[in-house]
Amino acid sequence: FPEGKYHKQIRIEENATGFGYEKLFQEYLTEIVSEVWVEDPYIRHVHQASRYLLYNFLRFCEMLVKGPCKVRTIHLLTSYDEGGGRSQQISGLEEIQQSLRNYGVTLNIAFSSSIHDREIRFNNGWMIKIGRGLDYFKKPQGRFSVGYCDFDLRPCHETTVDVFHTKHTKKM
Fold it and tell me: Does residue 1 fall inside a structural domain?
């Protein structure tokens, strides 16, 4: 396909399974990917049930660390938790940041009060927009239910994934 002319749309149906991050992103994570931009207003920890938002981002980072790409820098742009969960949000993100450092990956975190769109960009020109951002998985039935650990087995919320290739990925 000619660069800049590629667009693919994936529709994830309500309760569909088999859409873990590896399945969705792996084909775009070539060896040359070293930098990733994640814009998602909802990487936060509003209350106990929403800790999954931080876990989702952590799971995404784990996929990047496993390769085959050689990610060295992840840029996260999100919004502050508006409730009383801001300190948990920040400490959770700092813990992820520290953990990534052990793998030679730098996590740059920035906050915006006006961010709305959700997109993920790789420095090889691929851009993925997910209607629900990284949070398209349903809450697991329980801590010992199938799908708790393996996102491929976790039912999803209905959402649309748009994949584009741009010749020049815009810088944040």
Answer: no
